[in-house]
Amino acid sequence: MSQFQWLTRGKVDFPEIDCDIVERWLCAVAAAHNRVVGPMTYIFCDDNEIIDVNRLYLQHDYYTDIITFDDTLGRRVSGDMFISLDTVRSNAETVSHRPYHEELHRVIVHGLLHLCGINDKGEGEREVMERHEDEALSLLKKMQFDEN
Fold first, then answer.
1. What is 4-147's CATH number?
2. Which helix (H) or strand (E) segment is 78 a member of?
3. Of 28, 53, 68, 139, which is the most buried if we count CB atoms within 10 A?
4. 101 HSE (CA, 13 A, CB side)
5. In 3D, which of 55, 43, 42, 49 has the Cα closest to residue 10?
6. Cβ neighbours, 10 Å, residue 120
């Protein structure tokens, strides 16, 4: 049985991702950080849903691309990740200037990297997070290439 659940909430369609390869990729990224994957739930939603979650659980009144709820125990990473596809799309167009699918994969692995203990709020932490994201995205490209 897969450790992953992929859900939608609100008025969004499920994004075009290959869940099988993404799950293998996330397990490989976790292993590279000396972690194993436990139950993981990715919930794709819209901006209305993400701001409701942000207000209700974190008392933050702003939009974001991902909110990660950590249920990690020791080396077993586990959690629920809410991802706003609206914010991912707008960030791809205006902030990162990446293709949408690449930005979505970046956000998906961003949540896992938080569960692995990598932060991005303190001084110098954003650069560390971005380096780990870039390494993970390179691994995904290699896995996709090997698949074909």
1. 3.40.390.30
2. strand 76-84
3. 53
4. 8
5. 49
6. 16
Scan for tokens 């369609």, then name that residue.
Answer: 13
pLDDT per position as a tens digit, 23-72:
999 999 999 999 999 999 999 999 999 999 999 999 999 999 999 999 99
Token readout for 99 is 């293709």
Q: Where are the domains of the chain?
A: 4-147
Residue-level pLDDT at 71: 97
- Give the whole-angstrom CA distance, residue 54 versus residue 124: 24
Q: Dihedrals φ, ψ of 110, to 5°?
A: -55, -45
- Nearest of 107, 123, 122 to residue 50 by alpha carbon: 107
Q: What is the value of pTM for the model shown?
A: 0.95
Task: Give the closest residue to 71 by CA, choosing from 108, 40, 44, 42.
Answer: 40
Q: Which of 85, 86, 50 is nearest to 68 (CA)?
A: 50
What are 27's two structure tokens?
Answer: 């397990």
What pLDDT, on a 0 to 100 scale, did the predictor assign at position 10? 87
Closest CA to 46 of 88, 13, 12: 12
Whether the per-residue pLDDT at 122 is higher than 90: the answer is no
